[in-house]
C-alpha cells in the first residue's frame, strides 16, 4: 500500500513532469523568426565582400533589457589598392587570383589604371560583452537587428536567400562543432555536393591537419567522438579550418578561434588560419591581440560602440587610448 506521503511525492513529480513536457512542446511548436529552410530571397553572381553595418540597434531576445547595439555603424571594405599604373592596351578585364589574395583590374580608357588589391582583414577587439561576437551572429543572420540594416555589396542581407548567404561565409569559432563521425565526414560537411578524397586531403594539408590525421591508425576514418572528444583542442580547430577551406567561402569569420589553445597549438592553428584568410574578406574576433596586429583594420568596441579604429601602429600611437589600454591589461598579448 502506498502511504499518503509517497502519494504526495508522486503527485509532485507528476506535476513537474507535466510542466516540463508543456515547456518542451512549446519550444518544439515555436516558429523561428528566421527560417533557414526558406527558398525566398535573391543571390549574387559574384560576391566582392563589402560589408556595411548601418545604424544597428539590437537586443538579444533572451535579454530584452540589455541593449547590445544602439546606432552601431561599421564599414568592412573588401579590398585595398596597393599600386596604380596606367594602361591603354587592354579591354576591361577582371581576374581574381584567390589563392594569391590578389585582384587585378585593367581598363582601356586613357588615364585609367591597372590596380592591384589585397582583400581586407578586419579585427574586432574589446572587453567581454562589448558586442564583438554579436557582429558575427548578425552577419550570419542567426539574429536580425531590431533596427538598421546590414549590407553585403550594397544589398541588404535580409533580401538575400539565407542558405546562399551562409554558403558565402565560413565560420571558425572558439569551440568548433564536430559531429560523432569520422574525420573525413566532418571535413566533408563543409560542402553540399560530393567531395573527393583529394579535395578532403588538400583541405587538411592547407589546415596543417594532414600530418596528424595520417599518423592515426585509421587515418581519415578515425571517429572524432561526441563533440570531438577524441581529439585535442588544436586538432579540433584544424579540422574546423579544413572544413572552412573546403567550403571555399568568400567571407571568413573567426570568432576567438585560438583563444582556448596553448601556445604551441595556437602557433600551428594560426599558421593554418593565415593560409585560409588568403583571397577572402576576413572578420576576426580576437582575445589574444598578438594574433591580429597585422590586420588591415582593428576596430575597438566598448559598450556596443566603436571607440577606435585603425592599424595596430596607429592605435598604439594614441596616448591613453582604448587599444593601448587593452594591451596593458593583457601583457602576454604582444
Structure in words:
This protein is of the alpha/beta class and 334 residues long. It folds into two domains: 38-78 and 120-168 and 249-334, Rossmann fold (3-Layer(aba) Sandwich); 176-248, P-loop containing nucleotide triphosphate hydrolases (Rossmann fold, 3-Layer(aba) Sandwich). It is 31% helix and 25% strand. The chain has ten helices and 14 strands. The strands form three sheets. The protein has a six-stranded mixed beta sheet with strand order 10-11-12-7-13-14, sandwiched between helices. The chain has a four-stranded antiparallel beta sheet with strand order 2-1-8-9, with no helix packed on it. Helix 5 packs across helix 7. The protein starts with a helix and ends in a 5-residue tail after the last helix.
CATH top level of the largest domain? Alpha Beta
Tell me, briefly, the overall form.
globular
Separate helix tally: 10
Q: Give the overall average pLDDT.
A: 80
What about the largest sheet?
6 strands, mixed
Total strands: the figure is 14
Q: What's the arrangement of strands in the largest beta sheet? A: 10-11-12-7-13-14
Strand content: 15-25%
CATH H level, superfamily name of the largest domain: P-loop containing nucleotide triphosphate hydrolases
C-alpha Rg (nearest Å) = 24 Å
- CATH topology term of the largest domain: Rossmann fold
InterPro entries: AAA+_ATPase, ABC1_TM_sf, ABC_transporter-like_ATP-bd, ABC_transporter-like_CS, P-loop_NTPase, Type_1_exporter
GO molecular function: ABC-type oligopeptide transporter activity; ATP binding; ATP hydrolysis activity
Protein name: ABC transporter domain-containing protein
Domain ABC transporter: 90-328
Amino acid at each position: 500500500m502506498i502511504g499518503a506521503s509517497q502519494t504526495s511525492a508522486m503527485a509532485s513529480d507528476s506535476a513537474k513532469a507535466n510542466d516540463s513536457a508543456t515547456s518542451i512542446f512549446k519550444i518544439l511548436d515555436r516558429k523561428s523568426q528566421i527560417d533557414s529552410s526558406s527558398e525566398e530571397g535573391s543571390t549574387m553572381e559574384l560576391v566582392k565582400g563589402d560589408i556595411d553595418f548601418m545604424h544597428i540597434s539590437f537586443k538579444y531576445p533572451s535579454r530584452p533589457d540589455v541593449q547590445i547595439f544602439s546606432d552601431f555603424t561599421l564599414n568592412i571594405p573588401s579590398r585595398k589598392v596597393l599600386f596604380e599604373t596606367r594602361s591603354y592596351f587592354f579591354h576591361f578585364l577582371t581576374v581574381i587570383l584567390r589563392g594569391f589574395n590578389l585582384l587585378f583590374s585593367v581598363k582601356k580608357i586613357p588615364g585609367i589604371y591597372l590596380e592591384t588589391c589585397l582583400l581586407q582583414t578586419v579585427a574586432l577587439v574589446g572587453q567581454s560583452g562589448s558586442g564583438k561576437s554579436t557582429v558575427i551572429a548578425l552577419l550570419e543572420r542567426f539574429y536580425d537587428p531590431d533596427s538598421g540594416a546590414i549590407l553585403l555589396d550594397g544589398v541588404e542581407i535580409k533580401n538575400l536567400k539565407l542558405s546562399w548567404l551562409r554558403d558565402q561565409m565560413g565560420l571558425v569559432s572558439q569551440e568548433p562543432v564536430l559531429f560523432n563521425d569520422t574525420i573525413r565526414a566532418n571535413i566533408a560537411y563543409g560542402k553540399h555536393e560530393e567531395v573527393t578524397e583529394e579535395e578532403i586531403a588538400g583541405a587538411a594539408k592547407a589546415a596543417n591537419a594532414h600530418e596528424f590525421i595520417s599518423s592515426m591508425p585509421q587515418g581519415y576514418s578515425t571517429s572524432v567522438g561526441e563533440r570531438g572528444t577524441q581529439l585535442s583542442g588544436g586538432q579540433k580547430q584544424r579540422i574546423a579550418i579544413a572544413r572552412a577551406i573546403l567550403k571555399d567561402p568568400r567571407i571568413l569569420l573567426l570568432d576567438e578561434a585560438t583563444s582556448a589553445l596553448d601556445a604551441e597549438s595556437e602557433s600551428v592553428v594560426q599558421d593554418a588560419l593565415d593560409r585560409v584568410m588568403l583571397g577572402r574578406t576576413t572578420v576576426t574576433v580576437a582575445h589574444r591581440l598578438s594574433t591580429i596586429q597585422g590586420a588591415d583594420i582593428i576596430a575597438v568596441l566598448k559598450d556596443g560602440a566603436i571607440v577606435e579604429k585603425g592599424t595596430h601602429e596607429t592605435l598604439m600611437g594614441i596616448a591613453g587610448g582604448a587599444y593601448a589600454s587593452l594591451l596593458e591589461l593583457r601583457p602576454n598579448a604582444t
